[in-house]
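dumping this here so i dont lose it
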């Protein structure tokens, strides 16, 4: 289990229980999607285990030009 949750006053509070790596990121996304789909809350609050750190330029996603180029590929 990567995510804990509680529903209070229409807000679904989700908390990641640990830092995510490449392999656990997809599993956490599926878990979050399932929880949100089950509760259908008015609002969702996502709490991370630590404050986010800036990523180095090599880890950032491509800008709009890169996205357009990627989506144009067959």
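and the seq i came up w/
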């Amino acid at each position: 289990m990567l995510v804990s949750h509680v529903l209070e006053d229409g807000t679904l509070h989700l908390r990641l229980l640990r830092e995510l790596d490449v392999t656990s990121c997809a599993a956490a996304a599926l878990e979050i999607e399932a929880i949100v789909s089950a509760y259908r809350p008015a609002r969702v609050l996502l709490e991370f285990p630590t404050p986010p750190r800036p990523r180095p330029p090599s880890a950032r996603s491509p800008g709009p030009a890169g996205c357009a180029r990627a989506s144009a590929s067959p």
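The first strand starts at residue 3 and ends at 8.
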